[in-house]
Amino acid sequence: MAELSPAAVEVFLSEADDTPIVMLNLINFKPDDGRERYRQYHKMAKPILARFGAQILFGGDGLPLLTAGPAAGWDAAVLVQYPNRSAFKNMVADPGYQEAFKVGISAIADIVLQPMKHMHGLI
């Protein structure tokens, strides 16, 4: 079940808001038509993302894991870049996005949302 942690969101939004944030979405779809409903969600969400200056950097289907251990893997991963934390906050509060999110949540069995910021010296 996809559910935001209010405490984690509060900490995330309280930090400096002056750099882009990339949101890593690791997704497992519900059986049957979850993947198709997720595509429908993205069709609805894309113009809303654009209004808030966000863009999808990557979206891909998961392949079998190459590492050993207890990790089970994910059906898909999506990277979405937001210009700042406020853009994410405002988008999530947008009534149009909330309608699209209902479709998205109906498609998802499990999700991890991991905000990331640029790692200096890596690229």
Automatic annotation (TrEMBL):
Lineage: superkingdom: Bacteria
Residue intervals of the DUF1330 domain: 35-103
Family annotation (Pfam families): DUF1330 (PF07045)
PANTHER family per record: DUF1330 DOMAIN-CONTAINING PROTEIN (PTHR40257:SF1), PTHR40257
Protein known as: Uncharacterized protein (DUF1330 family)
Provenance organism: Aliirhizobium cellulosilyticum
